[in-house]
Write a structure and sequence with these properties.
metal ion binding, D-Maltodextrin-Binding Protein, domain 2, 10 strands, five-stranded mixed β-sheet, 3'(2'),5-bisphosphonucleoside 3'(2')-phosphohydrolase, globular, 2 domains, CysQ/Inositol_MonoPase, Fructose-1,6-Bisphosphatase, Chain A, domain 1, 262 residues, alpha/beta
């Protein structure tokens, strides 16, 4: 069994720095799993399991009194009464992870405390980049030209095409939910609008980072995002530059038909 990484006291002492460290160490492990010779679903399953197990062991060592909500773990509803809950997606974009050399997959680590997201990190291991709340990202001035909206590379929902037409925007296909949300932080896009099918672990860490960067985050219709709920389904999401939030959420609210899944 590989020895657990040792977290320096100076890092473990802060939730923001610890979130970054967790995401990066998990990313390191996933990169090692990616070169074991496994392919397809076997690689995807091995990555999910290895990343989840590492995170759970590290929480047990460094945050033994905190609750954990992980995509790959059993949901203990006792967490809803906890004051501190780590919300993690060990591999966000498992399909992209299982298709080397794709880079559009991520590791999500977020901390919910007393009703709010207070720390978060999104690692993009294959790109060697991590965005976290310990060093809030600075979003560059918007690139001139049409608005850019991040969408699923394989199944962009029809309503986003309608939104793009309404705003004169262009659609930018890419992989995982975290990569799409962080694309706004990176000034690769101006907005990410998600239509459905997500859970709390898909958005918690990207939302924490986006908020630290000064971006708008909400449900697609502009209503608040709520985490550590008994039902972890959080079906829609808007991450965007503040100046376009009202336009987008108003369009969403004007639709009479339900939004399809992304």
């Amino acid at each position: 069994m590989t020895a657990l990484p040792v977290c320096p006291d100076s890092v473990a002492g802060g939730d923001d720095t610890f979130a970054r460290w967790l995401a990066e160490r998990t990313g390191d492990l996933l990169l090692r799993v990616r070169v074991t010779g496994l392919e397809g679903s076997a690689l995807a399953n091995a990555g999910d399991a290895a990343a989840h197990d590492l995170l759970i062991e590290l929480f047990a060592r460094y945050r033994p009194h905190d609750a954990v909500l992980s995509e790959e773990g059993r949901d203990d509803r006792a967490r809803t009464a906890a004051h501190r809950v780590w919300i993690v997606d060990p591999v966000d974009g498992t399909r992209e992870f299982s298709e080397p050399p794709r880079q559009d997959w991520a590791v999500h680590v977020a901390l919910w405390e007393g009703g709010n997201l207070v720390a978060g990190a999104v690692a993009l291991p294959a790109a060697g980049i991590t965005y976290a709340t310990d060093i809030p990202p600075r979003v560059a001035a918007r690139t001139p030209g049409p608005l850019r909206i991040a969408v699923s590379r394989s199944r962009p929902p029809a309503f986003v095409a309608e939104l793009a037409g309404e705003l004169g925007a262009e659609l930018v296909p890419m992989g995982s939910a975290g990569v799409k949300a962080i694309s706004v932080v990176r000034n690769l896009t101006d907005a990410y609008v998600h239509a459905g099918g997500q859970y709390e672990w898909d958005s918690a860490a990207p939302v924490a980072v986006a908020r630290a960067a000064g971006l708008h985050t909400s449900r697609a219709d502009g209503s608040p995002l709520r985490y550590n709920q008994a039902d972890v389904l959080l079906p829609d999401l808007l991450v965007c530059r503040p100046e376009v939030a009202q336009q987008i959420s108003s369009f969403i609210r004007s639709r009479k038909d339900p939004m399809p899944a992304d």
